[in-house]
Amino acid sequence: DVKVTQSSRYLVKRTGEKVFLECVQDMDHENMFWYRQDPGLGLRLIYFSYDVKMKEKGDIPEGYSVSREKKERFSLILESASTNQTSMYLCASSLRQREQYFGPGTRLTVT
Amino acid sequence: EDQVTQSPEALRLQEGESSSLNCSYTVSGLRGLFWYRQDPGKGPEFLFTLYSAGEEKEKERLKATLTKKESFLHITAPKPEDSATYLCAVQGYNFNKFYFGSGTKLNVKP
Known about the structure:
The complex is a heterodimer of chains A (111) and B (110). Chain A has 111 residues and is an all-beta fold. Chain A has strands at residues 4-6, 10-13, 19-25, 31-38, 42-51, 54-57, 64-70, 73-78, 87-94, 100-102, 106-110. Helix content of chain A is 0%, strand content 59%. In chain A, the strands form 2 sheets. In chain A, strands 2, 4, 5, 6, 9, 10 and 11 form a 7-stranded mixed β-sheet that branches. Chain A has a 4-stranded antiparallel β-sheet with strand order 1-3-8-7, with no helix packed on it. In chain A, β5 and β6 (54-57) form a beta hairpin. The termini of chain A are far apart. Chain B has 110 residues and is mainly beta. Chain B has no helices and 11 strands.
């Protein structure tokens, strides 16, 4: 079975802090994704990576950056957290262009 | 405009009462249509992939079908444990772009 893990289930940070969310997959998938999910807005793509050190902006990249130094690990960085970044963050991975497998999510609250 | 619309937004069923969820799409160049189940506070769980019109997939009480413009998720004799939000996603010409619907929240009462 594909397994995607995320570093934290719940996280509380203060405004202005730098926040790191980590995602690890164990199935040697080329593609990895970061989404945020908000009520009424659905899933929105933040960033996507199709290979080590390669990344593409998604629909809402502002205020975020990413890092992929190893194939199995994809990190999302909030450079200076703001209250409007309070959300559920979901990591996903996929093999080439096939279905995505999601992690359990990180509920981030910025106060 | 590429988009995916799911209906209804919410559905209440009695245990054993079969029904269908709809996912309609206007995404150009369908590569794949995916169904997911999401429980509250958790990540989506992959259910099915459909690639071409006429294709069907089944898993326990769930059956997914695909036409040229929509997909249905049929739930036969549902149980309370089927209660969840069901998400549909469509992959178009751009392999790395997935268009998600807003989901159908299913509640099955015993």
